[in-house]
Specification:
By secondary structure, the protein is of the alpha+beta class. It contains four helices and eight strands. The chain folds into two domains: about 5-140, Small protein B (Small Protein B, Chain: A); about 140-170.
Length: about 170
């Protein structure tokens, strides 16, 4: 199932049964206001898939970009699989992402806008295939990050008071 998954800055949503998350980019939703999310397949080698199945990947410095109507993820660190031949293996090589042509054209238009960036949010397995959730986000400035934290704390306080009120009722 490829395509736009929704919008908003809330969590990545409920995991579908059978999906297994390998790595998440926890800073992404703090540093960016995610407007849309996309699901993309990944072109990987066999040892890279084995390493992902072992739960070894880092999205911290990763970013995605559109080049010649192809989407590539850069700086995604997948360490070498111990049992494989590691000669010539580059853990942060560029990896191609698989999206539908209309989605790529939409991303070309959106990333041409000032301030919109493709951010890898998480890597997971869906029905045995490695997938990446990409977010189309606008970078937040420092004061916006502080506002988002204050708003989140305010919502938590409201939820706590409502929960306490429900407990106190007979």
């Amino acid at each position: 199932m490829s395509g736009r998954q929704g919008a908003g800055g809330s969590g990545s949503g409920p995991e579908v049964k059978g999906d297994r998350t390998v790595a998440t980019n926890r800073r992404a939703r703090h540093d960016y206001a995610i407007e849309e999310t996309y699901e993309a397949g990944m072109v990987l080698t066999g040892p890279e898939v084995k390493s992902l199945r072992a739960g070894r990947a880092t999205l911290a410095e990763a970013y995605a970009r559109v080049v010649d109507e192809e989407v590539w993820v850069e700086n995604l660190h997948i360490p070498a699989y111990e049992m494989a031949d590691t000669r010539g293996y580059h853990p942060t090589r560029s990896r191609k992402l698989l999206l539908r042509r209309d989605e790529i054209r939409r991303l070309i238009g959106k990333t041409a806008e000032r301030g919109l960036t493709l951010v890898p949010l998480r890597i997971y397995f869906s029905r045995g295939l490695a997938k990446m959730e990409l977010g189309l986000g606008r970078g937040r400035r420092k004061f916006e990050k502080r506002e988002a934290i204050a708003e989140r704390e305010h919502r938590r306080e409201i939820e706590r008071s409502l929960a306490a009120r429900r407990r106190d009722r007979p």
